[in-house]
Design brief:
With 314 residues, the chain is α+β, with helices and mostly antiparallel strands. It has 7 helices and 18 strands. The model has no long low-confidence stretch (mean pLDDT 86). Bound molecules: zinc ion. The site of zinc ion (ZN) has 7 residues, from loops.
Length: 314
């Protein structure tokens, strides 16, 4: 099967009239100039932008969606539809939001509906789990596809025999990390920093600032913020080291109770050093350190039995 990078190259070539090999050469040159810190897909997007190409009228596969894309168009099947949630805006109006998971034959993505007309489609049962829909003019924000009032969601006649419902994660080494990768690595914890705390909006999950009379979300106004913990780590898999972040839920899986007494926390942190685990997450650019950082969403013990089975098979 053709990879998403190859498909993006082909699209750029087709739209620009520049040969496939020349497009690829430009992408490699772009990556070289950025010291390899950008993925092939990301560099291809930069090259496309420089050529004045946008993907506005292109129907993309879900695994072709790239960070920061505006006006993205995809078709997929709704495999998971979450209940309509309401919130109060800064002006005191009632707002609504709907989350759903859209899948095609290449991957899946969380879709967020903000527009009342789109939400009515869900409320009135026009679209439901199993519906195939076309999404037009949506934007990628932190790995999610967001639909505003300029976006469209409409029925599609496309048929999907099978869709990818599992999270598409590639097994990688740290030295192979590229920005925006979803990756799974087996690595040792070589440093564990003190937990830090922050507050998020219960509606949009964005960080909130604390004001004079409570917590204020830029989008939802005054909210009852949720306290969350995070911990920074340095991981080493033998190929390289990376900074990593583990949030709330996954901290328990790593063996840390962030709310525990300081002296217990010290013991928990020390116990982690030198521990080998399997980490899944996304590679992001840390703007402060100007370095890639691994945002971990799942931590698992190394499955030695499974590992032995897979070694015996090879
Ligand atoms: Zn909010």
């Amino acid at each position: 099967m053709q990879g998403n990078y190859e498909r993006i190259l082909e699209k750029i070539s087709k739209i620009s009239g520049i040969g496939n090999e020349e497009v690829e050469r430009r992408v490699e040159a772009k990556r070289a100039r950025l010291s390899g810190l950008i993925s092939h897909e990301g560099a291809a997007q930069v090259v496309a932008a420089e050529l004045g190409i946008n993907f506005d009228n292109e129907k993309l596969k879900i695994d072709e969606l790239l960070p920061g894309m505006r006006r993205a168009n995809v078709v997929g099947k709704i495999v998971n539809l979450f209940p309509v949630r309401t919130f109060t805006t800064k002006k005191g109006d009632q707002g609504k939001v709907v989350n759903l998971i859209l899948a095609d034959d290449t991957s899946n993505v969380r879709v967020v509906l903000w527009d009342t007309h789109h939400i009515e489609f869900i409320e009135q049962g026009v679209f439901f789990e199993g519906s195939v829909v076309e999404i037009v003019n949506a934007s990628m924000r932190e790995g999610e596809l967001h639909l505003g009032s300029f976006s469209e969601i409409k029925e599609s006649k496309e048929v999907f025999d099978s869709v990818r419902k599992d999270k598409v994660v590639k097994e990688k080494t740290i030295s192979e990390f590229q920005i925006s990768d979803a990756a799974k690595i087996r690595a040792f914890i070589v440093q564990a920093f003190e937990p830090r705390f922050f507050y998020v909006c219960p509606e949009c999950r964005k960080k909130v600032a604390s004001g004079a009379d409570g917590f204020i979300c830029a989008e939802h106004g005054k909210v009852a913020a949720e306290k969350r913990a995070l911990m920074n780590f340095v991981l080493d898999d033998g190929t390289e080291t990376t900074r990593a972040v583990v949030f709330n839920e996954a901290l328990a899986d790593i063996g840390v109770n962030a709310l525990d007494e300081p002296e217990n926390l010290i013991i928990q942190r020390e116990a982690l050093l030198g521990k080998e685990m399997v980490f899944s997450g996304n590679v992001r650019m840390n703007k402060f350190f100007n370095n890639p950082e691994f945002i971990i969403d799942q931590v698992k013990e190394v499955d030695l039995d499974g590992l032995i089975v897979s070694l015996e098979k090879t």
